[in-house]
Amino acid sequence: MMVRALDHQPSTQKTPSFSMRRMYETQGRTSRRFSAENVPDGASAPKPDRVPDLPSGAPTKSPRDKYHTDIEMMKDRFAKLLLGEDMSGGGKGVSSALALSNAITNLAASVFGEQRRLEPMAPETKTRWRKEIDWLLSVTDHIVELVPSQQSNNGVTMEIMTTRQRSDLLMNIPALRKLDALLIEQLDQFGHQNEFWYASGDKNSSEGRNGEKWWMPVVKVPPEGLSESTRRWLQSQKDSVNQVLKAAMAINAQVLSEMEIPENYIESLPKNGRESLGDSVYKSITLEYFDPDQFLSYIDISTEHKVLDLKDRIEASIVIWKRKMIQKDGKSSWSSGVSLEKRELFEERAETILLIIKQRFPGIPQSALDISKIQYNKDVGQAILESYSRVIESLAFTILSRIEDVIYSDSVAKNENDQAEDEMDSQIFAEPTSTMTLSDFMGWDMGKGESAGRKSNVTSGDARGDEKRLLKPVTTKKFSYLEKLESLRSPTCRH
User: Fold this and answer.
1) How far is it, in rounded angstroms, from Cα 404 to Cα 467?
2) What is the torsional sign of CA 116, 122, 126, 132?
3) Which residue would you say has higher pLDDT here, 337 or 148?
């Protein structure tokens, strides 16, 4: 009963503490309002003794706030991936493979799209790229395959199956990460040079325009050009970026070749390679003696559109010939009267031309076959490898083009400098010299000298004396070489 009575007694501590807290909060608000209202103009309000819990001004983000922001961004990214870019949730989105491919492509476009100069990336942009590309590549850590392994338990060895990252991802993802880091490091190295710069012209001035590429800034170099050490350094940078470009192109081409060809693309093809290539191209490929370089010299590939059209036709013919080699029965619509050996030879020649085109034009857009493969691909690992290698290839090609712009500006400045020096030298050597010749020394040109003297007298002397001098006959005596030698006697001896 005593315990029960104590339980029903009213609490004497909660009410006073609650009322006191309300009183302190009311007094705090009143005192802060009063102090703010009574501050004179131009003076700062006095700071309270205790920092209020409410945020004031522009608070800085703590590491915990940044962590929560990253979590929210990650949720947003992966929500779009899971929904297949269909935010309505109706199930009409694209496949997971295409969603990841588009995410990597869009991220690279937003980060590297404005990389128009050879300069280091902004720290915020670099951090964003590394953070978000790690999120997207983390999917590959869970794409595994079963491999046999041995396990020992109490002295008994048994063979079990363990999971491991898929072989193509295990080999190519670290390589692509290395290529990515190399390109960003190459950009960082350009922050230490000071021999070339970019024109800071506005939209209305012609200083910042680059001819046909009006959207690109103009590279400026000294009037005498770059120094020899900078030229060698630029060439080494160009070679390094070119190696990265070739490695990324090789990985991308390998991944695309392993993707399945969609049935929609096959149904759109003609039934023979001659119709796909055209008569002139087909005759050139099917000749007895074939030279790919000579073939490309005859074909019109002056514009990017024509190169892409030739690439599309050659790829279509390769698919047609491969399909005909697989379906050898006469009932199939893909059958043909051409022998298997000739068809293999034609396919090999077409692949050689295709390889040369890819090497000569690395920045060419994707062909119709590549676009179709990427669109209908269902393999998430291949989609990530293809998109990641493609954006690295694009960045390497952009850096290589910017380096070539600097080298071109340096060559133009050097040629102008050499041309100015040649013109100066030609003017110096073209000036007449007043040196005495052998004829002047021997006196063989006396008539010329007297006529010159008469001309000077006519212009400077009085007119009357000049008339008499002009009317007087002039007789010039021509000295022989022997007489001239007689007049040149040896000096007398000194005693």
Assistant:
1) 76
2) negative
3) 148
